[in-house]
Amino acid sequence: MALIVQKYGGSSVADAESIKRVAKRIVDTRRAGHDVVVAVSAMGDTTDELLDLAGQVAPIPAPRELDMLLSSGERISMALLAMAIHSMGFEARSFTGSQAGMITTADHGSARIVDVTPIRLREALDEGAIVIVAGFQGFNRDTRDITTLGRGGSDTTAVALAAALEADVCEIYSDVDGIFTADPRVVPKARKLGTVSSEEMLELAANGAKVLYIRAVEYARRHGVLIHARSTFSPNVGTYVLGPGMTRPDGEGEVMEEPIVAGVATDLGQAKITVVGVPDVPGKAAEIFKVVAKSGANVDMIVQNVSAAATARTDISFTLPKTDAATALRALSGDQDEIGFESLIHDDQIGKLSVVGAGMRTHSGVSATLFEALSIAGINIEMISTSEIRISVVVRGDDLAEAARVVHRAYGLDGDADAVVHAGTGR
Fold first, then answer.
1. Which residues contact 86 (CB under 8 A, 6 or more apart)?
2. Confidence (pLDDT) at 259
3. How much is the pLDDT for 175?
4. What is the mean pLDDT of residues 219-232?
5. How far, in Å, CA of 264 to CA of 208, rounded?
6. What's the confidence (pLDDT) of residue 344?
């Protein structure tokens, strides 16, 4: 008997029929002799619909009340799922994040998990029940308020439960069969990976791959949780995310050497800001990025141009999430005279493409293949950033899908047939 934590995303529990399908899957796992704990997201697009509704009644909703509102989505789906399991003749108990012992910081909308005390969950498991937990939410001991964990919070909930309960595996279910070499909606010939290292998955998730969220992967790596990403709509084995020292439980698909390139990630959620005419003297870059940091913006790539000899001025470009651009622009404009730059240029029509692979450390020519593929396709590169196992480039947003396809092909990652996407959302 194993203890299995399963997480089902919004597309997996989008309606009554979907909930019954998920309930059957959970019951089948229980019939196989395993203890089951389930973390569940809100149904379909419920969270987005609640956000829209909040915006209609208040231009800037109070963060505490917004968390109270948004956390209701998961409570609906957990109760309905428990009812469906009951109707199949199995005991199921649903718990909110606070009832499950999910203790967080007090930051509404972006709380971090600080402790998990699953006392009630253990009691329910000991009594033979299937446990259903509302994902995405927790409780702060000091304020005694409900909190939410932000995007990907249900993934993080599942991994945190797996760590606290010492589960054998954490299964993350979505509408694709696992982790692919690229987003199959962008690159139809993408191939499913049997395994991927947590190091590679962190880079892929950080650079646009949406099948797993980076916070969940970080938590799993830190606490030694084995993740199995698979599809709600298929019984097939998915992709195992292996941390240091881990192996697949079935012993299959072991790779003796790390692949040169594991996958290609794309991201259309970034914008570029160029600070034009910055005095090329020590300390100016520090001033710029202190202002950006105070605005709360999360900077990704940075490029500084060569100083113009005639003016002793330079341009500094950086990328950040589109949602952070407006506040960063306002903050920089407010300090323009003090910093001494000439102007700001905002560009939200960019796309970021990232090539990730642990084998890059020991193989030459990876960057040459990337640049040659883009050159042959006539796609211009605007920015470049690298790490030990990643190369990222910024291109025009309109070129991103084609760039992903030609690069994917150049590295020999294309499969023989088109990948299957069962529900069409990726979550």
1. 92
2. 72
3. 81
4. 94
5. 9
6. 97
Q: CA 344 to CA 330: how far, in whole Å?
A: 10
CA distance 194 to 362: 22
Token output for 79: 């109760």
Position 357 in a domain: no
Range(s) of the domain holding residue 48: 3-174
- Residue 51 sits in a domain whose CATH number is 3.40.1160.10
Residue 189 lies in a domain: no
- Of 135, 210, 144, 203, nearest to 170 by C-alpha is 135
Other CB atoms within 10 Å distance of the CB of residue 27: 18
Average pLDDT, integer, range 261-281:
95
Q: How confident is the model at residue 239 (pLDDT cuts 50, 70, 90)?
A: very high
- Interatomic CA distance for residues 197 and 359, integer angstroms: 11
Residue 183 CB contacts under 8 Å (≥ 6 apart), including other chains: 190, 208, 209, 210, 265, 266, 404, 426
Residue 156 has pLDDT above 70, yes or no: yes
Are residues 410 and 391 in contact, defined by beta-carbon separation less than 8 angstroms?
no
Would residue 166 be called left, alpha or beta, if left means φ above 0 and alpha means ψ between -120 and 50 degrees?
left
Please give the Cα distance from 78 to 87 (Å, whole number).
Answer: 14
Contacts by 382-388 with C-beta closer than 8 Å and gap 24+?
Answer: 382/272, 382/350, 383/272, 383/301, 383/303, 383/317, 383/319, 384/303, 385/300, 385/301, 385/302, 387/203, 388/360, 388/361
* Residue 106 domain flag: yes
Helical (H) or strand (E) element with 231: strand 227-231
In the chain, how many domains are there?
1
What is the reported pLDDT for 422?
67
Radius of gyration of the chain, Cα coordinates, nearest whole angstrom: 23
Question: Residue 42 carries which side chain, given as an amino acid letter?
Answer: A
* pLDDT the model gives residue 358: 87
Q: What does the pLDDT read at residue 255? A: 52
The answer to the question of residue 388 being in a domain is no
